[in-house]
Amino acid sequence: MPDPVKRGRTTVEDVLQVGRSTVGDVLQIGRNTVEEVLHVGRSTVEEVIQVGRNTVESARQLRQGTMQAAVLHGRQDIRIEDVPVPRAAPGELIVRVGAALTCGTDLKVFRRGYHARMIVPPALFGHELAGTVVEVGEGVEGFPNGSRVVALNSAPCGKCYFCIHSQENLCDDLLFNNGAYAEFIRIPERIVAKNTLHIPDHVPLEHAALTEPLACAVHGFEDSRPYPGATVAIIGGGPLGLMILHVAALAGCEVIAIVKHDGQVEAARQLGAAHVVQTTSIRKAIRETRALTPKNRGVDIAIEAVGVPESWEEAVEMVRKGGTVNFFGGCASGTKVQLETNRLHYSEITLKATFHHTPETVRRAFGLIAAKKIRPTDYITGEAPLSRLQQVLRHMLNRGGDIKTAIIPGH
C-alpha cells in the first residue's frame, strides 16, 4: 500500500506548487496590466500634449497674423513666403494643414506656371489636404475647433443647369480653392457646406488627403461604363492611372496596365493589374495589349491617364468593336488629335472624357479610404517639409520614383 506520509507530502507540494504558480501568474498579469496601463497612459498623455502644443501654436500664429505658404510666381518658380493668416468669414473654416499631397495637376501647373481654370500667379498653391479646424466662422455647425477634416478643392453651386442634371463637375460656377501648401488654409462657405468631411480617428491626416485625387479616379472609372469581368486597359502609371487601375481591380475587372518605367511595373502589379505592358513604343503597346484579348479583338474599355495626344489615339486603337474609350488625361490647351472616322463609325466605339469629381464620388472615395480598401501608403511614398516643396516638384519632373509626397507644414 502507498505510504500515507509520502502521499501527504506529494499533496502538500502540489498545493504549494499550484499556489506558487497562481501567485506567479497573478504577479505577471499584474505587471502586464500595469505596463499596458502605463503604455496607454503615456500614449494618451503624449497625444494630449501634442494636441495642446498644436492648439497653442495655432492660437499664437493666429494672433501674430502671419504664416509660411508656397506662392506660385510663374514657370517652375515657387517661393516659400510669409503671408497673412486667413481669417474665417461667416460660413467659413480655418484649417491648420496637417498634410498636403503633391499631384500631377500641381506638377503641370508648376511646369507651365499657371492653370487656366484654377490658378493665375502670383497665387497660393496646392489643393489636396487634410487638417484640423482652428477657427470657425459665424453660422457654421458641425465642425467645432479641433475637428479633423478633409476639405475638397472645389464645390458646385447646386443651382445651374448642369448641377440640376447631376453633372456637378461641369457646374457653371464651380468654386475652386487653392493654398494647401501652407500652415493654414481658408475653406470657403460653399466647400464647408458641400465638400468637407469629418475624418475618423483611425484614419491619419495624410491618408485622408488622398480623397480628392481618388474621387477623380472613381469618377473616371464609373464614367467608363464598367461591368464585372470587363477587360480594362489603363494607359499611364502615374498616381491617377494607378488609382483608376486599383478601383477597376476592386470592381472585379481584368486590368491591363500600360506603363513606361520600371517602378510603375511593380506598383501596377501590387495594385491589382492582371497584366502589365511596359514599353515606350505606342505601336508595341497596342499590339501587345490586343494580344492579351481573345482573337486580338481589343479591350472592352481603354482609359487614357497620361494627357498627351499620341496616347489618346493609342487608346482608340486598343479598344474592341462596341467598346468605350475614356480620355481621362487632360492635354494642353489647343491640342488636336487625329482619329480614323471609319473605325469609330462602323465599330460603334464610344468616346468619352471625364473631368474632376462630384460630391457623390468624393464620398465614395472617402469611404474606400475609411474602410481600408484603398491603402494610401501605396501612393504616398515620401514626406518632406514645406521648405523643400520646390525640390520635390523638380524631382518629380525628372521622373523620380516617388508617386506622391506628403508635404508637412511646420516641419
Largest sheet: 7 strands, mixed
Give Rg in angstroms: 27 Å
Average of the residue pLDDT scores = 88
- Indicate the low-confidence ranges by residue numbers: 36-40
The number of domains is 2
- By CATH, the architecture of the largest domain is named Alpha-Beta Complex
Describe this structure in words.
The protein has 411 residues and is of the alpha/beta class. The chain folds into 2 domains: 204 residues, Medium-chain alcohol dehydrogenases, catalytic domain (Quinone Oxidoreductase, Chain A, domain 1); 129 residues, 3-Layer(aba) Sandwich (Rossmann fold). The chain is built from 13 helices and 18 strands. The strands form 4 sheets. Strands 3, 5, 6, 9, 10, 17 and 18 form a 7-stranded mixed β-sheet that branches. The longest helix has 61 residues. The radius of gyration is 27 Å and the shape is globular. It starts with a helix and ends with a strand.
Note the main attributes of this structure.
Rossmann fold; 2 domains; globular; 40% helix; Quinone Oxidoreductase, Chain A, domain 1; 23% strand; alpha/beta; six-stranded parallel sheet; 13 helices
